[in-house]
Design brief:
- The protein has about 160 residues and is of the alpha+beta class.
- The protein has one domain: Gcn5-related N-acetyltransferase (GNAT) (Aminopeptidase), CATH 3.40.630.
- Helices cover about 30% and strands about 35% of the residues.
- It has a 7-stranded mixed β-sheet with strand order 1-4-5-6-7-9-8, sandwiched between helices. The protein has a two-stranded antiparallel ribbon with strand order 2-3.
Length: about 160
Amino acid sequence: MDVPASLRITTTVTDTDKAWLADLWVREWGGESMITRGKVHHLSEMAALIAWDGEQRVGAATYRLAEDGCELMSLNALAGGKGVGTALLRACEEQARLAGCRRVWLIISNDNLDALRFYQRRGYHLAAVYPGAIDEARKLKPSIPEVGYHGIAVRDEIELEKVL
């Protein structure tokens, strides 16, 4: 998907941006923490990218750099099909390259078929499946729903990766 010329991605996050991000995380992720592979991650401690169309924030991504690569923690495009998610993903990959990472990886839930399609179309592949991982994560973050997209029970983590 092509990215609109009017779209820009910023890496600098102001106090106003932080408040906007916190609201986004609560609205979209049920809080300011994410759990992957049994570990709690606080999004406010992550590097963030914000997508802008003019003066409007239209999306955001958070990521963390680790020894084994860059983990994309969250990706939100406020309007689908406009290239915002793709632009944020490309920007995250570029930040990972600049940091010397050899791969970007992420975790999605087994019900998130739209995300599975999105990432695979952008060069990501299945790296691992962790059966029952979300059942365990729910003990740490009870707001994780039992049933998710398309009426599918939310149980497992799926790891996707892209080698840079």
